[in-house]
Each structure stands twice: as C-alpha cells, then as structure tokens.
Give the backbone structure.
Amino acid sequence: MTNDLSGIGPGIFIVVIVVGLAALWIGAMISIFRRSSAMSGLELIGWCAFVVFAQFFGPLIWFFVGRDRYIAPNR
C-alpha cells in the first residue's frame, strides 16, 4: 500500500483559493448591505454588480475605497 498524495496538492490549493474568494465576496456583500441606507438605489446596485462581476478586484476596491464613503448605521 502506498500513500501517493501528489494529486492532492493542487486540489487543496484550488479549494483554499475558492473558499478565500467566496469569503471575500460574502464579506463585501454583507458590508455593502449594512451601509445600504447611506446609498442611493443606483449606488447599491452598482456596487453589488461590481463586486459580483469583478470577483477578485471588486471586493478589494469596495473594502479599500468604497466602504469609507458610506457610514454604517449604529446597531
């Protein structure tokens, strides 16, 4: 019996990347909806579309540029 794990490495790498991107996307969407009361409807739709269609750069731009433009309500 041999333990050949050479095929597992790339699979784990892909899973880590996909899970990381999903967490980034979900975090950005939650952040956008928490601040939706400070946005117009067009801004909300625009940011959501940008995060969804620019899957890696969209959430990063939201967190580094867009999030500071809108104040989240105190809960």
